[in-house]
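Hello forum,

I keep getting stuck at the same step: I have a sequence, I want structure tokens, and every attempt I make locally crashes halfway through. Rather than fight my setup again tonight, could one of you with a working pipeline run this one for me? It's a single chain of 138 residues.
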Amino acid sequence: MFQLTRDVYAQMVGAALDAYPLEFCGLAAGPTAVGGGPGSVGRVFYPCRNDAESARVYTINAHDYMRAEADADDHDWEINCVVHSHTHSEPYPSPTDVSAAISPDWHYVIVSLKREAPEVRSYRIVDGEIVAEPLAIV
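Reply #2:
Ran it on my machine without issues. Output:
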């Protein structure tokens, strides 16, 4: 299970809507349970520029990544989530998302804007295998 604070959840959905029709991307950080397992919480959200400037793919800006990493370190937290939007498809990792998965300890959150109301889902991606996980708003 991955947990997001209500504020972080709202910021993610808001960033996705603001960036539309382009994909948005960002990172979340917080205390991470061993192996990214139950108890992982996204306590702060770092919106990042999408260097791809695309409606179909995202590339997190390196400077924004470094800024997020430094701030998380200042709080003794870790980056534990990457989030992005799908503007025209389901909230499920694409082959591109799977190949870009950085860490098996991270949670991969997708905000789909395919329908009238945003849909948000979380996944783990380990060795190319996608596993859906519960997402709790706390």
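The helical segments are 6-19, 62-74, 95-100. If your local run keeps crashing, start a new thread with the error log.
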